[in-house]
Write a structure and sequence with these properties.
The protein has about 325 residues and is mainly alpha-helical. The protein has one domain. The protein is built from 14 helices and two strands, in the order ααααααααββαααααα. α7 runs antiparallel to α8 and α12 runs antiparallel to α13. It is found in: Membrane.
């Protein structure tokens, strides 16, 4: 009979990778700040409910991924010495039930927001939940395909920002209404394209974190039959592509300011380029999960935090 260890608070924080949760928090803050700065709209109730739902789904994704990686691992060394569930002898069933609790909480918060806004959020949130579940679940998980970086960036970057604006912006940029006589569906294309443009730098940098993660885990992923984008590109090509991701993110900030989608104080983020370039060189010199992977996270957090602060500053100063 297997004896499992209790899930202590320090183990829980490692299980959900607490430092990485900022990658979910900052896009949320970006969206809320942008809605306030651009349109002068802020619904505190919707914002608070979405915060609970967004962080719940973020906790679910990380914990659920650990459970799925434990079950799907074909490399026994990885299962017993690197995956936290096997290494710390945690009960995978209890961990799974805890994560499903977070998922349920996120769904309840989402349904409340659908009631507060309109039915289109049900489709948008449903798509995000689908990606969250099937990212590591199912016969062909999305994480084992060369689409993980794109999905991670779009969902955690653009999706979070879009919904944060959606629940604060009236009228909502997407409308779906049904009753016994009428069906109405409309999209404010100008607002949606504007949100996509301003979110793109965070989308790219968020995807870069996943890209760096997959580069570091390339050999281990192959042993566990996970064929991610770096596998298809090959490590040399992946490393040649890597620095261009950060460059494109900064170029898009300049473009968004030029098109007046972002206020001009956001150009101050260019001052972070030496830091991001240094982080990029550090990762290119050595691809290590324990030593250099966090450099990609630091670049994402630095740029995202700077954008949030500058958007708030622009709103206060009425730029």
């Amino acid at each position: 009979m297997v004896t499992y260890r209790p899930l202590t608070w320090p183990l829980f924080l490692e299980l959900i990778r607490l430092p990485a949760k900022a990658a979910s928090l900052l896009p949320f803050l970006f969206g809320v700040s942008y809605a306030w700065m651009q349109w002068g709209q802020l619904d505190w109730l919707n914002t608070g409910v979405y915060f609970v739902g967004q962080m719940s789904i973020a906790l679910f994704v990380t914990g659920f991924n650990n459970v799925q990686d434990f079950y799907k691992a074909t490399d026994e060394t990885y299962r017993q010495t690197q995956n936290i569930i096997g290494r710390e002898q945690l009960d995978p069933v209890r961990i799974l039930l805890l994560m499903l609790g977070f998922l349920s909480l996120a769904c309840v918060m989402g349904l409340f927001l659908v009631w507060r806004t309109n039915l289109s959020l049900l489709l948008i949130g449903g798509a995000a939940v689908f990606v969250a579940i099937f990212y590591t679940f199912g016969p062909v998980p999305l994480s084992r395909l060369p689409s993980g970086e794109l999905l991670a960036g779009l969902c955690e970057g653009f999706g979070t920002i879009f919904i944060a604006v959606f629940v604060n912006h009236t009228p909502q940029p997407v409308l779906l209404a049904l009753d016994w006589q009428y069906f109405r569906f409309s999209i404010d294309m100008a607002t949606c394209l504007q949100l996509f443009l301003v979110a793109l730098p965070i989308v790219i940098l968020d995807g870069t974190v996943m890209f760096a993660d997959n580069i570091c885990d390339l050999a281990q992923d192959q042993r566990n039959q996970r064929y991610t984008l770096p596998y298809y590109l090959g490590k040399p090509r992946a490393l040649r592509l890597y620095p261009w991701l950060a460059r494109s993110a900064f170029a898009l900030i300049v473009l968004a300011v030029g098109l007046q989608a972002l206020p001009w104080p956001l150009l101050a983020t260019l001052g972070l380029w030496p830091l991001v370039a240094k982080n990029t060189r550090g990762f290119l010199a050595k691809q290590s999960k324990t030593e250099t992977f966090n450099l990609a996270i630091k670049s994402l957090l630095a740029v995202s935090l700077a954008e949030v602060v500058l958007i708030l500053l622009a709103g206060v100063m009425n730029f």
